Amino acid sequence: MNLQITDEALKYIKERLPQATAFLLTADDGSNQYSAGKGSACNVGDSFQVVGVNQVDDPYTIKFDCDQEARFYTSPNDQTFFGKGLKVDMKNNWLELKDNSGILDGQLTTNNAVK
Fold first, then answer.
1. pLDDT digits over 91-111, tens only?
2. Please, where are the H alpha helices in 17-102?
């Protein structure tokens, strides 16, 4: 699975998560151990986050083919939300996650989970 990240977006991510050696692209809807969001049927797949880690654990075993010098992973569950043309960009001072179908999350958050 391909992931394009603009230079501006990667710079922002690395500034926010400076100790991370890898990054997870995952839902923030209460469905996983990194999620601060409150889960409900209405917000499944509605909010996403970039989680900074220094160890990649199950179920985050799917490595993105990334156009930047950064290691990004996701899980099989999260992968179902991502289509072709997946891209992280900066828009109005926020990280934006989109694919060919449109904007998936206009306010992608960051979460530091470095141990």
1. 999 999 999 999 999 999 999
2. 76-79
